[in-house]
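Re: flavin-adenine dinucleotide structure - here you go.
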Amino acid sequence: MEEVEITIIGAGVIGLAIASELSEKYNNIVILEKHDSFGQEISSRNSEVIHTGIYYPHGSLKAKLCIEGLEYLYEICGKYSIAHRKLGKLIVATDQTELIPLEDLFKKGKTNGVNDLALLDKGDIDKIEPNTNAIAAIYSPHTGIIDSHSLMKHFLSVAEDKGVIVSYNSEVELIDKENKGYIVGIKQENYRFLSKILINCSGLSSDYIAALAGIDINKCGYKIHLCKGSYFTYEKSSPVKSLIYPVPHKNLTGLGVHATLDLGFRLRFGPDTEYIDSIDYNVNFNKKDIFYESALKIIPGLEKDAFKPDMAGIRPKLQGHGEKTRDFVITDEAEKGLPSLINLIGIESPGLTAAPAIARMVSGIVSEIMN
Ligand SMILES: Cc1cc2nc3c(=O)[nH]c(=O)nc-3n(C[C@H](O)[C@H](O)[C@H](O)COP(=O)(O)OP(=O)(O)OC[C@H]3O[C@@H](n4cnc5c(N)ncnc54)[C@H](O)[C@@H]3O)c2cc1C
């Protein structure tokens, strides 16, 4: 049976970042991807925001890897000319009830190590963004946007240049632990091979892959809950030039419908949050009123007719509806009797920002396994 050193399941931004990182140190690496190209799922259906790490619980992987990832991302973007813009972001309180949550969020960001945050009053806000309803705001000058497709292409080309093999149309359907590693079975070709190390970064299917390897996902809390986020575009010129966010929901299911801009300065609102039972990317036109009203709360004077359904993405959440926020799972499963199986589960936002830091963390786990 053919043997490989490292198999990465999933060619999204996480799998590609890991492949790029590992290719600097190791040979004989394969990426298996079920679609016929990379980045067809979560990584191409998101806000493309480079987050700074304000929101996440102090000490969490989300906070740590977001803050590290942001630095690496700007470095990579500069070095390899990947399209991005450091637009800055305002988190806006629009009435008195939001002032205390805003201050709490400011303190949280500072505690997490986001040092360049500023708390602004109306006068300061108007100098940066005169067209919002803010009475106070957190300003994050380091927040940006990135062309995620170009980022993935960059990781892919680094990996391929170093000899990583990418096998598309290769859906993993079997994982069997044996002495020297894992037998991996691919559906399309009815093909089996042995891999010493297996890295599961299959996004929305990461619980399924963990289950294939023999993990009881309900017992371990690995079950993925699909949480859809829809977007509406604003088909008129943007009245703002920064990213504008409301003060977020208490349990952080999402960051609240916010205004993002793409690299062409097209204004978009979203994503909202909607737990769903099966994958469905359709945007419900009937949500237009809710989007318009949510948007109007942060930016006045918008025209309802200019709101058009755009796209939707699906978050791989570890917490079900109404449950407490969960952190990323990034771990070698030796304690579960599955050494050298590295699971990455629940890699929702800020996964795009954190991708290069996640890759370095996984590289550390791999080097411990190799030693
Ligand atoms: C609505 C939304 C907005 C977001 N906004 C942001 C943001 O602004 N900033 C930010 O930092 N993050 C954001 N994120 C999070 C970020 O997009 C994700 O964390 C990141 O893209 C996850 O990448 P991934 O590689 O884990 O998943 P994916 O891109 O989904 O890659 C997983 C891959 O595994 C493949 N796969 C699945 N099963 C199998 C199998 N059995 N065999 C082989 N291959 C398989 C899939 O086809 C897929 O290509 C957002 C996410 C969503 C949903």
